[in-house]
Amino acid sequence: MKRHLKCLFTRSICAGLALVLVFQYSILAQDASPEPDATYEPITVTLDNKPLFDITTDSGSFSAAERAKAIRKRLVKIAEDPEIPVESIRTEVRGGEVLIIAGDKEKQSIAFLSPKDAAAQKTQPKLLADRYVQTIRESVTDYRQSRSIQNVL
Fold it and tell me: Given its phi and psi angles, is residue 67 left (phi above 0), alpha (psi -120 to 50 degrees) or beta?
């Protein structure tokens, strides 16, 4: 009988410790869970003061605003270079991410779109990039035409 009580006591203590550990673990897991992604006001990428598309998410250490600024800078550089055919602006899939690039001989990166970017726009990365490519091609064509000699004179 004494042995039975000792065994019951030991099991009760073990069960109690197990419950305490499970409770502690669930509290720690809740504390360690990542914060939901911050939502940002859309930062509009422009070319020649015309809105093209919005960037709403950070990527790595770059904020949405920094990304939009860098994309705009790259777009101006490409738009001002008549050696880069508009048709060379395209997507390149790398894993789950999609690059928008330009140039046949030397590839120039324009933008990087992740699944997070696509989720913010409620679509898939490749579909979003294809939409952006079409918009970029049209805007680069307009940019070049507005600065052509015929239009300047």
Answer: alpha
